[in-house]
Amino acid sequence: MQIRELSVPDSYEITPKQFGDDRGVFLEWYRFDRLEEAIGHPIDLRQANTSVSKRGVVRGIHFADVPRGQAKYVTATHGAVLDYVIDIRVGSPTFGQWDSVLLDDKDRRAIYIAEGLGHCFVALTDDATVSYLVSDVFNPSKEHGINPLDEQVGLVFPPEAGEPLLSPKDTDAPTLAQAAGQGLLPQYDDIRRYYDLLNQKDA
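The structure assignment produced for this chain is given below.
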Protein backbone atom coordinates (compact mmCIF):
# COMPACT_ATOMS: atom_id res chain seq x y z
CA MET A 1 0.00 0.00 0.00
CA GLN A 2 1.01 3.61 -0.55
CA ILE A 3 0.70 6.09 2.34
CA ARG A 4 0.74 9.82 1.66
CA GLU A 5 0.51 12.60 4.25
CA LEU A 6 -2.19 15.13 3.46
CA SER A 7 -1.89 18.92 3.58
CA VAL A 8 -3.31 18.79 7.12
CA PRO A 9 -0.40 17.30 9.11
CA ASP A 10 -1.04 14.05 10.99
CA SER A 11 -3.61 12.83 8.45
CA TYR A 12 -2.83 10.35 5.69
CA GLU A 13 -4.28 8.89 2.50
CA ILE A 14 -3.78 5.14 2.18
CA THR A 15 -4.01 3.54 -1.27
CA PRO A 16 -3.99 -0.28 -1.21
CA LYS A 17 -2.59 -2.51 -3.92
CA GLN A 18 -5.44 -4.57 -5.40
CA PHE A 19 -5.04 -8.07 -6.80
CA GLY A 20 -7.77 -8.95 -9.27
CA ASP A 21 -8.56 -12.03 -11.32
CA ASP A 22 -11.63 -13.72 -12.77
CA ARG A 23 -12.84 -14.49 -9.24
CA GLY A 24 -12.81 -10.89 -8.02
CA VAL A 25 -10.41 -8.73 -6.02
CA PHE A 26 -8.23 -9.10 -2.91
CA LEU A 27 -6.55 -6.28 -0.99
CA GLU A 28 -5.18 -5.35 2.41
CA TRP A 29 -7.16 -2.31 3.53
CA TYR A 30 -5.43 -1.98 6.91
CA ARG A 31 -1.87 -2.83 7.98
CA PHE A 32 -0.95 -1.74 11.50
CA ASP A 33 2.79 -2.02 10.83
CA ARG A 34 2.75 0.12 7.67
CA LEU A 35 0.66 2.77 9.38
CA GLU A 36 2.94 2.71 12.40
CA GLU A 37 5.89 3.47 10.14
CA ALA A 38 4.08 6.60 8.92
CA ILE A 39 2.69 7.98 12.20
CA GLY A 40 5.30 6.80 14.69
CA HIS A 41 3.21 4.47 16.84
CA PRO A 42 0.65 1.67 16.49
CA ILE A 43 -3.06 2.43 16.86
CA ASP A 44 -4.69 0.93 19.92
CA LEU A 45 -7.92 -0.09 18.18
CA ARG A 46 -10.91 -0.18 20.53
CA GLN A 47 -14.04 0.04 18.37
CA ALA A 48 -15.23 -0.48 14.79
CA ASN A 49 -18.21 1.41 13.32
CA THR A 50 -20.20 1.28 10.09
CA SER A 51 -22.57 3.89 8.70
CA VAL A 52 -24.83 3.66 5.64
CA SER A 53 -25.91 6.97 4.08
CA LYS A 54 -28.09 8.14 1.24
CA ARG A 55 -26.64 10.52 -1.33
CA GLY A 56 -26.12 14.02 0.05
CA VAL A 57 -25.86 13.00 3.70
CA VAL A 58 -23.19 14.96 5.58
CA ARG A 59 -21.79 13.48 8.80
CA GLY A 60 -19.59 15.77 10.88
CA ILE A 61 -17.60 17.79 11.63
CA HIS A 62 -16.89 15.60 14.67
CA PHE A 63 -14.01 15.40 17.15
CA ALA A 64 -13.33 14.08 20.66
CA ASP A 65 -11.51 15.47 23.69
CA VAL A 66 -7.82 14.61 24.01
CA PRO A 67 -6.72 12.59 25.88
CA ARG A 68 -7.62 9.94 24.74
CA GLY A 69 -9.23 11.43 21.69
CA GLN A 70 -10.27 9.19 18.84
CA ALA A 71 -7.92 8.50 15.96
CA LYS A 72 -9.83 7.15 12.95
CA TYR A 73 -9.00 4.88 10.04
CA VAL A 74 -11.83 5.17 7.54
CA THR A 75 -12.75 3.46 4.27
CA ALA A 76 -15.81 3.04 2.05
CA THR A 77 -16.85 -0.56 1.41
CA HIS A 78 -19.76 0.32 -0.89
CA GLY A 79 -20.50 3.43 -2.94
CA ALA A 80 -18.53 6.64 -2.55
CA VAL A 81 -17.98 9.50 -0.10
CA LEU A 82 -15.73 12.51 -0.05
CA ASP A 83 -13.99 12.40 3.31
CA TYR A 84 -12.62 15.57 4.94
CA VAL A 85 -10.03 16.17 7.64
CA ILE A 86 -10.15 19.60 9.27
CA ASP A 87 -7.39 21.11 11.42
CA ILE A 88 -9.17 22.40 14.52
CA ARG A 89 -6.04 22.53 16.71
CA VAL A 90 -5.74 26.08 18.00
CA GLY A 91 -2.25 27.36 17.29
CA SER A 92 -1.57 24.93 14.45
CA PRO A 93 0.09 26.41 11.34
CA THR A 94 -2.81 24.95 9.34
CA PHE A 95 -5.61 25.81 11.78
CA GLY A 96 -8.96 26.05 9.99
CA GLN A 97 -7.66 24.37 6.84
CA TRP A 98 -8.91 21.09 5.41
CA ASP A 99 -8.06 18.38 2.92
CA SER A 100 -10.14 15.58 1.44
CA VAL A 101 -9.87 12.06 0.04
CA LEU A 102 -12.32 10.26 -2.23
CA LEU A 103 -13.24 6.96 -0.61
CA ASP A 104 -15.04 4.52 -2.90
CA ASP A 105 -15.40 0.85 -3.82
CA LYS A 106 -13.14 1.20 -6.88
CA ASP A 107 -9.79 2.54 -5.66
CA ARG A 108 -10.66 1.44 -2.08
CA ARG A 109 -8.56 4.11 -0.42
CA ALA A 110 -8.62 4.81 3.30
CA ILE A 111 -7.87 7.90 5.36
CA TYR A 112 -6.16 8.11 8.74
CA ILE A 113 -7.11 11.03 10.97
CA ALA A 114 -5.13 11.57 14.17
CA GLU A 115 -6.55 12.54 17.55
CA GLY A 116 -7.46 16.22 17.80
CA LEU A 117 -8.46 16.65 14.16
CA GLY A 118 -11.99 17.17 12.86
CA HIS A 119 -13.66 14.60 10.62
CA CYS A 120 -16.54 14.88 8.16
CA PHE A 121 -17.78 13.24 4.99
CA VAL A 122 -20.49 13.70 2.38
CA ALA A 123 -22.08 10.73 0.61
CA LEU A 124 -21.82 10.87 -3.18
CA THR A 125 -24.00 7.79 -3.80
CA ASP A 126 -26.98 6.13 -2.20
CA ASP A 127 -26.18 3.39 0.31
CA ALA A 128 -22.67 4.76 0.77
CA THR A 129 -21.21 2.42 3.38
CA VAL A 130 -18.33 3.67 5.50
CA SER A 131 -16.38 1.61 8.01
CA TYR A 132 -14.26 3.18 10.74
CA LEU A 133 -11.58 1.69 12.98
CA VAL A 134 -11.16 3.97 16.01
CA SER A 135 -8.76 4.21 18.93
CA ASP A 136 -11.37 4.67 21.65
CA VAL A 137 -14.97 3.73 22.36
CA PHE A 138 -17.71 6.28 21.83
CA ASN A 139 -18.10 8.58 24.83
CA PRO A 140 -20.91 11.14 24.35
CA SER A 141 -19.62 13.37 27.14
CA LYS A 142 -16.33 13.87 25.28
CA GLU A 143 -17.71 14.20 21.75
CA HIS A 144 -18.13 17.57 20.04
CA GLY A 145 -19.10 18.97 16.68
CA ILE A 146 -18.64 21.96 14.38
CA ASN A 147 -21.24 22.96 11.84
CA PRO A 148 -20.04 21.56 8.49
CA LEU A 149 -21.62 24.53 6.68
CA ASP A 150 -19.49 27.02 8.61
CA GLU A 151 -18.27 29.56 6.06
CA GLN A 152 -14.98 30.01 7.92
CA VAL A 153 -14.14 26.35 7.38
CA GLY A 154 -15.49 26.49 3.84
CA LEU A 155 -15.92 22.82 3.01
CA VAL A 156 -16.69 22.37 -0.69
CA PHE A 157 -19.20 19.62 -1.47
CA PRO A 158 -19.10 18.13 -5.00
CA PRO A 159 -22.12 18.78 -7.26
CA GLU A 160 -22.83 15.05 -7.46
CA ALA A 161 -23.64 15.05 -3.73
CA GLY A 162 -26.76 17.13 -4.38
CA GLU A 163 -28.48 19.02 -1.55
CA PRO A 164 -26.66 18.48 1.77
CA LEU A 165 -28.65 16.45 4.31
CA LEU A 166 -27.61 17.10 7.91
CA SER A 167 -28.78 15.88 11.29
CA PRO A 168 -30.15 18.43 13.79
CA LYS A 169 -27.09 17.70 15.92
CA ASP A 170 -24.78 18.89 13.16
CA THR A 171 -26.85 21.90 12.06
CA ASP A 172 -27.06 23.02 15.70
CA ALA A 173 -23.31 22.62 16.24
CA PRO A 174 -21.26 25.79 16.78
CA THR A 175 -19.08 27.40 14.16
CA LEU A 176 -15.32 27.01 14.40
CA ALA A 177 -15.03 30.48 15.97
CA GLN A 178 -17.80 29.75 18.46
CA ALA A 179 -16.24 26.41 19.41
CA ALA A 180 -12.92 28.16 19.98
CA GLY A 181 -14.62 30.82 22.10
CA GLN A 182 -16.30 28.12 24.18
CA GLY A 183 -12.96 26.42 24.83
CA LEU A 184 -14.01 23.22 23.04
CA LEU A 185 -11.11 23.02 20.60
CA PRO A 186 -7.83 21.27 21.36
CA GLN A 187 -4.64 23.29 21.70
CA TYR A 188 -1.96 22.45 19.15
CA ASP A 189 0.90 22.31 21.68
CA ASP A 190 -1.10 19.97 23.93
CA ILE A 191 -1.87 17.71 20.98
CA ARG A 192 1.75 17.58 19.90
CA ARG A 193 2.78 16.57 23.41
CA TYR A 194 0.13 13.84 23.30
CA TYR A 195 1.49 12.53 19.97
CA ASP A 196 4.99 12.55 21.48
CA LEU A 197 3.70 10.53 24.45
CA LEU A 198 2.17 7.93 22.13
CA ASN A 199 5.45 7.68 20.21
CA GLN A 200 7.46 7.31 23.44
CA LYS A 201 5.19 4.48 24.66
CA ASP A 202 6.05 2.58 21.50
CA ALA A 203 9.79 3.25 21.75
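Interim note for the steering committee: The first helix runs from residue 32 to 39. The chain has four helices and 13 strands.
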